[in-house]
User: Fold these one by one.
Assistant:
Number 1:
Amino acid sequence: MTRVAVIGIGQSLRGDDAAGLEAVRRWREKFPETAGKPEVQIEACELPGLSLIETLSNVDAAILVDAVQSSAKPGTVHRLSENELASFPSSSKSAHGWGVAETLRLRSQLTGTKVGIRIIGIEAEQMELGAGLSEAVENAIPILCEVIEEEIHALL
């Protein structure tokens, strides 16, 4: 049986940076049958780092949902491989300080094992402290929920 983690990443008090957390929460509500499967593990990760590495050690595959910043239109949904995430320009680094790409690289170096990683990114408009989700990101959350569901079915 393939064990899959669905991990929402972001900081809940930093505007669109909370999109990953919110998308996973809403996906869980919209697709309770999938979310309730014993092979699906659901996590929220406010600061990727050692806790993310530990979570990935217990699964065969993972779907990471996070806000990203590039030159795309706010609200754009990206499906990225681990290598594609690492290719985002340095100006698109995570608001978490130690970003997801760096954490995944460290995990690979430390463990030497491979976990099937799929990253669903949503283009952030703003990540201001104390702000809520922007309208563009809020409108894209239902699409993110559908993409999460598709990715899980592809992995299981």
Note: The longest helix spans residues 135-155.
Number 2:
Amino acid sequence: MSMIERFEAMLAAGKDGALLRFGLGSEYLKAGDAGRAAVHLRGALALDPGYSAAWKLLGKALEKTDPGAAAEAWRQGIAAAAAKGDKQAAREMEVFLRRLGRAGPA
């Protein structure tokens, strides 16, 4: 049984939570399914809007298909990370945002 199958089974059993949604988003992104990853990462953020790692990964999931949404996710993630004092996550998202800006319109 894959990690995705395990996490999906937990979700189906009613064990929803920000960490579970983050795990699902991460696994779907690794599997190349950015759309499903984004759905679960948004679910994680609905449960915990201050989850800076979820903002960071959501931006990554959206980067190729919707650069504007990716930039907005990273902006919100930077604010969430700053509010928690998570300087490293904020710096990483600032770098992603700058790189996205340099890439220009798709």
Note: Residues 84 and 91 are 13 Å apart (CA to CA).
